[in-house]
């Protein structure tokens, strides 16, 4: 069974840590939109067999950004 309140916990954690817009800032530095950057990161991550800790962190941020994007489109 999937917890339905996971997204609220994630948003609360982001606010607490002050990490809002970190991924979108990375996308801007790469001169890409957030969704295009997320797609690129996910594709590159899946193509590699081994990953560094920063790569894994960025991958997780990309997946979360894609999830938020999908959620905003449903509203």
Give a structural overview:
With 75 residues, this protein is mainly α. The protein has one domain. The chain is 75% helix and 0% strand. It contains 4 helices and no strands. The protein is globular and about 30 Å long. The model has no long low-confidence stretch (mean pLDDT 89).
Salient structural properties:
75 residues; mainly alpha
Give the overall shape. Answer: globular
pLDDT averaged over residues: 89
**How far is the first residue's CA from the last residue's CA?**
23 Å
Number of strand segments = 0
Structural domains: how many:
1
Stretches where pLDDT falls below 50 for ≥5 residues? none
Radius of gyration: 13 Å
Give me the number of helical elements: 4
Topology:
Blueprint: H1 6-17, H2 22-29, H3 34-47, H4 53-74
Helix pairs in contact: 2-3, 3-4
Summarize it:
Helices cover 75% and strands 0% of the residues. It has 4 helices and no strands.
């Amino acid at each position: 069974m999937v917890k339905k309140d996971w997204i609220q916990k994630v948003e609360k954690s982001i606010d607490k840590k002050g990490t809002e817009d970190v991924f979108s800032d990375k996308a801007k530095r790469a001169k890409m939109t957030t969704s295009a950057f997320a797609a690129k990161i996910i594709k590159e991550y899946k193509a590699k067999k081994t990953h560094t800790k920063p790569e894994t962190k960025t991958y997780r941020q990309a997946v979360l950004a894609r999830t938020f994007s999908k959620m905003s489109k449903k509203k």
